[in-house]
């Protein structure tokens, strides 16, 4: 029986875009008199982005804060939960989300679910695109792009070689749809407006190239408007390459499918839409009808075959009234969201559901340089008239009167004054971070989402299980966290500093990339991950051992006659012992007391680096710290200690550290196999 969710809503909406926000607004309006109506919005950001204006942010025409609206202010009455959805259980009607570094996983129950998370992005199909390209999906993307353009101008202004300046100022935009065209125009306007302030950059040195796989731009508009768009961009100075696809991207070039190589130190990718990960997962499990990465819905917005699940926006194959599916634009998403809200309210009241009737008002796209193209109610407009139409229509679509005023004021100032060329480089999170802990400080608790791998620089952190037993005491040079990151991403233990400690945290995504890319690291971390055993896992191993052995202690099961080395012996002496008694590891003793372990592989490496006739004493070699236990250690304790220490064998010693014998976990389990 699943545990009770942390929150339960009548209607839970996943997604803070146009479809999700307008669904919540309309539903709250329709059900304001319903006493038990609760609406929850789950979104990865606490604001809605007005995406049609992102190119203007990149081009410096608008400030970033003016194209976002807090969801809590737009949807008053709804509860907004900021977090990443990690799992959706449609059968039990539970959503699991990760709220952040300091927040344990939160579960949300629902009666009706509205899926509007939008689309994902997948650049992996083009080698190098994910590593080098800038996106245009969020305000952060637009801010990074603008900062990168201005940074290139600043760097080019320092270079005296014209050829190097030209290479540095080569910008490429991939995709000839709305976002690609508008971004290309805005970048060209920003460069032309800013260039006059950079005395060492010549007019012909910056270049903006738009690569499109089709025969003309803006394929959703008429041929004449698409041709006009290409002509305007060309007159502005943008080079357009038609009927070409990008084959690969490097740090300084864009490789085309026909073998042409273009210089480019800045690449913007506006293509690469992919199914949202959660939609893809639900489709793969058979919980949701998904075709070509989109949720299959009826004309009412209800998911086909499900009565309490709805979907709209870019993630849904939403039927259009005049045939086909709706395009992925704001005007359709906002109306789909409002219709779903009306139909959810109708289902609560037992009324019939209504189909989607909207067929579109038209399409608009700004080209830059105060020009645009528009196709509205069958009529076509271009040039400055279409530009005024674009600004007026999108200004009215902006939610919130304060945002309308701010954008209108900023647009007005931009007409009379040059664009802002301040380089305000956003500070982004580093994959490495350092932290300080005082004694008693908790780093994480069992059940919380795992975010990082931790390495201890100074101090000590105890990893403890639910019974308070120490799983690992991580000291200087040791690390922990790999089991959770390589597994389901959830901490199974508590971590607490026992003294003043300095730690280095490696971001979880960075850790996974390194582990997947470097085979030896992956092997290392998967090996050390085995040290973190839960009490029940240790007990299962103990239960496999015969009862007589379980009641014994180390002195009863250890091997007494073992090969060992004297610390005063030479490497050559050790080699002779290796040949006489082949083992992987040998205890090294002084006056019978164990001071370390010598691995045979280490001795061979030492010989290769110091000569085959090496007569160095063994105590000069890098010895491994021995894992020592006393002879009276009970077998169950020994098993748990071996499993959690990550070592394969233990050295049995007396109180003076004199060697008595050795024991391995395998020795204990052999009895289980023979029993």
From TrEMBL:
Keywords assigned: CBS domain, FAD, Flavoprotein, NAD, Oxidoreductase, Transit peptide
Catalytic EC class: oxidoreductase
One Pfam family in the UniProt entry: Pyr_redox_2
UniProt keyword annotation of Zinc present: no
CBS domain sequence ranges: 558-614, 622-675
E.C. numbers: 1.6.5.9
CDD domains noted in UniProt: CAP_ED, CBS_pair_SF
InterPro entries: CBS_dom, CBS_dom_sf, cNMP-bd_dom, cNMP-bd_dom_sf, FAD/NAD-bd_sf, FAD/NAD-binding_dom, NDH-2, NDH2-like_C
Domain Cyclic nucleotide-binding per the UniProt entry, residue ranges: 432-514
Keyword DNA-binding annotated: no
Reactions catalysed: a quinone + NADH + H(+) = a quinol + NAD(+)
Family, as annotated: Belongs to the NADH dehydrogenase family.
UniProt protein name: NADH:ubiquinone reductase (non-electrogenic)
Organism, scientific name: Prosthecobacter fluviatilis
């Amino acid at each position: 029986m699943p545990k009770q969710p942390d929150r339960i809503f009548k209607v839970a909406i996943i997604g803070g875009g146009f479809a999700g926000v307008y669904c919540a607004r309309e539903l709250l309006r329709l059900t304001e008199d319903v006493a038990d109506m609760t609406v929850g919005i789950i979104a990865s950001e606490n604001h809605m982005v007005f995406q049609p204006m992102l190119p203007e942010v990149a081009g410096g025409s608008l400030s970033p804060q003016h194209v976002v609206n807090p969801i809590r202010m737009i949807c008053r009455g709804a509860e907004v939960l900021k977090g990443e959805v990690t799992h959706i259980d449609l059968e039990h009607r539970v959503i699991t989300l990760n709220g952040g570094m300091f927040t344990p996983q939160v579960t949300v129950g629902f009666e009706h679910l509205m899926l509007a998370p939008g689309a994902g992005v997948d650049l992996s199909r083009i080698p190098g695109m994910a590593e080098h390209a800038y996106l245009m999906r969020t305000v952060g993307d637009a801010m990074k792009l603008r900062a990168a353009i201005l940074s290139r101008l600043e760097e080019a202004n320092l270079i005296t070689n014209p050829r190097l300046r030209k290479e540095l100022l080569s910008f490429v935009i991939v995709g000839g749809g709305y976002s690609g065209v508008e971004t290309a125009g805005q970048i060209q306007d920003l460069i032309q407006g800013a260039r006059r302030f950079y005395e060492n950059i010549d007019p012909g040195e910056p270049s903006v190239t738009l690569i499109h796989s089709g025969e003309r731009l803006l394929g959703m508009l008429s041929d004449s408007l698409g041709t006009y768009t290409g002509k305007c961009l060309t007159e502005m100075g943008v080079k357009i390459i038609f009927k070409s696809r990008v084959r690969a991207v490097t740090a300084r070039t864009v490789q085309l499918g026909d073998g042409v190589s273009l210089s480019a130190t800045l690449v913007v990718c506006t293509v690469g839409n992919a199914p949202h990960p959660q939609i893809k997962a639900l489709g793969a499990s058979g919980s949701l009808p998904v075709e070509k990465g989109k949720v299959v819905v009826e004309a009412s917005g209800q998911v086909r075959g499900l009565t309490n699940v709805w979907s709209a926006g870019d993630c849904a194959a939403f039927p259009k009234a005049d045939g086909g599916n709706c395009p992925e634009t704001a005007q359709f998403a906002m109306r789909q969201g409002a219709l779903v809200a009306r139909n959810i309210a109708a289902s609560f009241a037992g009324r019939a559901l209504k189909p989607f009737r909207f067929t579109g008002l038209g399409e608009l796209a700004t080209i830059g340089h105060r020009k645009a193209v528009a196709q509205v109610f069958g009529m076509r407009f271009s040039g400055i008239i279409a530009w005024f139409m674009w600004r007026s229509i999108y200004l009215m679509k902006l939610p919130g009167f304060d945002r309308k005023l701010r954008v209108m004021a900023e647009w007005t100032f931009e007409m009379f004054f040059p664009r802002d060329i301040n380089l305000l480089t956003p500070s982004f999170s580093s994959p490495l971070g350092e932290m300080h802990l005082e004694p008693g400080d908790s780093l994480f608790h069992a059940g919380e989402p795992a975010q990082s791998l931790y390495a201890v620089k100074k101090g000590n952190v105890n990893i403890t299980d639910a019974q308070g037993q120490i799983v690992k005491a991580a000291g200087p040079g040791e690390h922990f966290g790999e089991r959770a990151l390589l597994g389901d991403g959830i901490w199974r233990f508590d971590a607490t500093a026992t003294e003043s400690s300095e730690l280095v945290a490696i971001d979880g995504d960075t850790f996974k990339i390194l582990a997947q890319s470097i085979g030896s690291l992956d092997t290392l971390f998967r090996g050390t991950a085995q040290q973190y055993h839960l009490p029940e896992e240790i007990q299962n191993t103990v239960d496999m051992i015969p009862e007589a052995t379980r009641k014994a202690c180390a002195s009863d099961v250890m091997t007494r006659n073992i090969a060992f080395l004297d610390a005063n012996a030479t490497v050559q002496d050790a080699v002779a012992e290796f040949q006489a008694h082949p083992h992987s590891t040998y205890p090294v003793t002084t006056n019978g007391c164990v001071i370390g372990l010598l691995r045979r592989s280490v001795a061979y490496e030492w010989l290769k680096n110091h000569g085959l006739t090496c007569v160095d004493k063994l105590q000069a070699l890098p010895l491994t710290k021995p894992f020592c236990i006393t002879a009276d250690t009970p077998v169950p304790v020994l098993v748990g200690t071996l499993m959690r220490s990550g070592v394969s064998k233990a050295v049995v010693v007396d109180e003076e550290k004199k060697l008595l014998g050795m024991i391995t976990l395998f020795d204990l389990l052999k009895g289980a196999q023979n029993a």
